[in-house]
Amino acid sequence: GGGRPQAGALLDRLVPLLSEGDQLRTQRESLRAERKELLTELGKAADESEEAAAEDHCAGDQELEGRFLAAVEEASRENASLEAEIKGLRDDNSRLKSKGAAAAKAEAEAIKTAETQAINTDSYKAADVEPLKPVAAKPGARVPRSFPKASDAIKKAPPAVEEDMSFQQREAMASLLRKSQGVTSPSTARSGMTARGFSQGKGKKNELDKGQEDQLKGALHMLFKNFAK
Fold first, then answer.
1. Contact 176, 218 (CB under 8 A)
2. Is pLDDT of 165 > 50?
3. What letter would DSSP give residue 156?
4. HSE (CB half, 13 Å, CA atoms) of 184?
5. Which domain of life is it from (predicted)?
6. pLDDT in tens, 202-215
7. Is the dihedral of CA 120, 126, 129, 130 positive or negative?
């Protein structure tokens, strides 16, 4: 970086010097022409001495010109080196830009591929679960109805119904007992139940035969069995 300003400074110094050298060469040519005229006038001896001095002056000019040319060549080489370095930096920057663009593209493609795979996985899972198909009823087919069982109705009956059933059960047992004893209703039994009637009824009850007792027991057993269901 520091070589470029130095080369510019050398060129700035070299250009005026080259211009001055051109002017000096022009003056030299005019002086040589003037010298020839003087030599012609002064003679041959003077001409030879002047010629030697002129040759020495010409050698000094050539040395100065050589130094200028060497400086120009050195500046040219330095400029060429700087241009090569600049070109290398530009190439490196271009490669880095290309590499960054390729990395960004690869990352975008990877993200897109991952999203596609996730979508496909969800689709496969959804396809594995078969939706429930509605079952079409056949024309003319009857839909079976479920009716509650009598036992369920009895189990689910409220307490008031249960008490009512117990009362009915007791009434049925009493009615059956009265029929087996020959009594038609509780009022008739109470009206005819005097001291004598009570003793006669008690005598009739004691006179029940074995068959009537068995019938009463069987009827009571069937009644309990029906209510137990």
1. no
2. yes
3. T
4. 3
5. Eukaryota
6. 455 555 556 667 77
7. negative
